[in-house]
Amino acid sequence: MFNRNRFLRRVAAIASISLVAGCSLLSDGSPDNKGPIIVGTTSAPSTLDPAGAYDGSWELYRNIYQTLLAYPNGATTPQPDAAQSCSFTDSTSRTYRCTLREGLKFADGAPLTAEAVQHSIDRIRTINAPSGPAGLLGSLDRIQTSGDREIVFHLNKPDATFPFVLATPAMSIVDPDDYPANSLRKDNKVFGSGPYKIKSYDEGKQVTLVANKNYKGFAKLQNDAVTIRYFQNSSSMVKALRAKQIDVTYRGLAADDILALQQHGSSDLELIDGAGVDISYLVFNPKDPWAGRPAVRKAIAQIVNRSAIAHKVYKDTVDPLYSMVPTGLTGHTTGFFDDYGNPSVPKARKILTDAGITQPVPLTFWYTTDRYGSETALMFQELKRQLEASGLFTITIKGRPWKTYVVGYQKGEYPVFGRGWFPDFPDADNFIAPFVGEHNALGTPYPSKEITDKLLPHSRAESDRAQTVKDMEQAQQILVNDARLIPLWQGRQYIAASEDISGGEQSLDPSTIMMMWTLHRKTSW
């Protein structure tokens, strides 16, 4: 039904964009004198509908949508954003209550109520998009609302990580009038309540954000507007930075470009090197006649030289990783190094011969051609070189763009394929739970009842996450024993910025998602 009031609100909202873009929200000398801050990245969103994305689209969502909880600068645990307060109301971590801030509105002026929160989260499960985040809500039974501001989440089992789930951009709050309960939006329009609203969007090329005057949350905008430009590769992005066509780069800097910025520093550019928790790993298809054999997987685990990959391909801008849980998170182990030690062809040969495999094993390795950075193809060439040099394998390498690549691994087409993982939230649970079970983030069933039925439930009943170390260590050892997933490296976060840009150091939340509102021009303050 046509909603006349909504229509008028939108006309006013559209008309006001030019005023927002042309008039500073700050004092004289504000960033608007030089136009919006322009951020470059190689990670373009796959969709603007939060119910349809479990990928780098979250980068944009964090800035245009709002979640009940999020991470203010310096926080490592979720804090209220759209919510005024949230807490478990029982001792078993099964009932979680949130109260919304008063007077919340979407960017077009429509009220944001408890009903909108329920609608936003329920539709994720109802739509259950193949590339969507429904898997994050496995512990949610039902949602109950009371009035306009009270939301109660009833869980089907204890889950102390549920607040972390609510803080992911997947749980972005959308307007029920604009987002169907049973299907995804396809018109590239956004009605959110985050710090920014979209002024213009050119899919795959750029999006321009302007301050949302209706926003109520913890973010304190240090700029009036941000334009995000999407690049195909690092070299073109850095070229644009050096030419002052963009102000900041984030996500996708190649090792050679990082090295050049480090070694040949320029007085008008700054490189920020921060800790990261993103990981790269191999996935083995258990239905493949070769990849499905444990001996084959373990022989590969015995040969792979992570240090060579980190040094030769990534120029030491990443670190070797020996567990699916990265360094820096509570519960991290070095299980693959503890069990396999240094790379050894004789040990790998024995693993295969003991299993009756005496001929070179033929395998096809797949990678995505337009995600995880331009070194991905080089890394797979290095893996091929290492494995074939052993005389134990013959490797064929194939690649596809991300959108068709995802479809391929969900259909089980790949014997071995590469994936990267940027965490949903900074907890060891999120580097184990998404990859196991019949329905997981990889589209490749990985039944492991010890993990899914015992270790994860036991750890999620513990609100003090420091007390989950034993469970997480046991789960990681099971992953090592199965070798269904082989970790390769752990990344670091690099931001390159023009000398007049500040706020980059504060811009990353614990999931390494960029909060654009911290950026500002030094000359303006």
UniProtKB/TrEMBL annotation:
Location within or outside the cell: Cell envelope
Signal peptide span: 1-26
Solute-binding protein family domain location: 77-440
GO BP field: peptide transport
A single Gene Ontology CC term: ATP-binding cassette (ABC) transporter complex
Pfam families tied to this protein: SBP_bac_5 (PF00496)
One annotated GO molecular function: peptide transmembrane transporter activity
UniProt entry keywords in alphabetical sequence: Signal, Transport
Family as reported in the entry's similarity comment: Belongs to the bacterial solute-binding protein 5 family.
Family matches, as PANTHER family: PERIPLASMIC BINDING COMPONENT OF ABC TRANSPORTER (PTHR30290), PERIPLASMIC OLIGOPEPTIDE-BINDING PROTEIN-RELATED (PTHR30290:SF10)
Protein name: Peptide-binding protein
